Amino acid sequence: MARHYRSDLYKAQARAGYLFVLPSFLLYAVFVLAPVVVTIILSFAYYDISFGFFWVGLENYQRFFSEPRALTIFGNTLRFAFLAVTFNVAVGLILALALNRAMPAPLLYFFRLAFFLPVIIAAAFVSVVWSYFYSFDFGVINYYLSTLGLPRIPWLSSSQFAMTSIIIMDVWKNTGFFMIILIAALQGVPRPILDAARMDGASPWRTFSRITLPYISPVLFFCVVFASIGALQVFESIVILTGGGPGDATRSLSIYLVDEAFSGFELGYAASVSVIMMVLILIITIIQLVGSRRLVTH
Fold this sequence. Notes:
The protein is mainly alpha-helical.
C-alpha cells in the first residue's frame, strides 16, 4: 500500500514538473527548433515569393563551394575568427595577469571597470564611434599620425587595412569580458602552491606555465570556444564600419547571408549559407573539444 502511494506521488510530482517546463519548451520549440528545421529544409530548395517552392537538392551547396566570391567570404570569416579569438583571449589573459596582483583597491577597481566597460556598450554604438576614429580626413588616429609626420592611413577604405581595423575594434570591445573571467580563474589558483613554488626558486614563467596555466586551462578553453562562436557570426561591426568592403575584403558569412536573403531574395541559397555557418561552428567546437582533452589538465 505504501509503495503504491509513493508511486502515485512520484507520478504526480513528475506531471507537475512537466507542466512547469512545458511553457519554456514550447517557446524553445517555436522560436528555435522550428526555424532550424525550416532553414535546413529551405537549404535544399529554391524558394521565390512569386514562383513558390522548388526542390533542388544539393544545388545550393554546390553553388556556394564553386563560387569564387562565396569562397572569398568564407575565407574572410575564418581569418577574422582566428585573429579575433587569438587576440581577444591573449590580451584578456595578459590584462588578467596584470590586474591579479596587490594594488590599492580604488586603482584596481578603476582598471577593471575601464577595461570591462566597452563590453556592456552595444556593438553598434562602439562601431559608430570607431568609424570616427578611423576617418581618413577627420579621424583621431590619422590626426596624431599627421602630427608625428607620418602619412595618413585609409583604415576602412583599403583592403590592406580594413580587416585589421575591424579586429582592433573587436579586441578593444570584447577583451574585457575574457579579462574578468580569467581574473576569476586566476583567483582560484591555490595560493599555498604558488608560495611554495616561489620559495623553491621557480621563475615567474615556470610558475605560470607549470602551475597557473594548468589550473586555469578549463576556463581558458571556455573563453576560446565562446569567442570562436561569436567571431564566426560577426555582423554589425563590419556592416557599420565597412559595409563588407572595400569590395568583399571584409564581408563575412553573416552579411553574405543577409544580402542573398533580403537583397537577392534567394531564400533557399541564403538558408544553405546559414546551414554551412552552423556546421562550421559545430566542427570548430568539436575540434576544440577534442583538443581540450590534451590541453586541459585540471
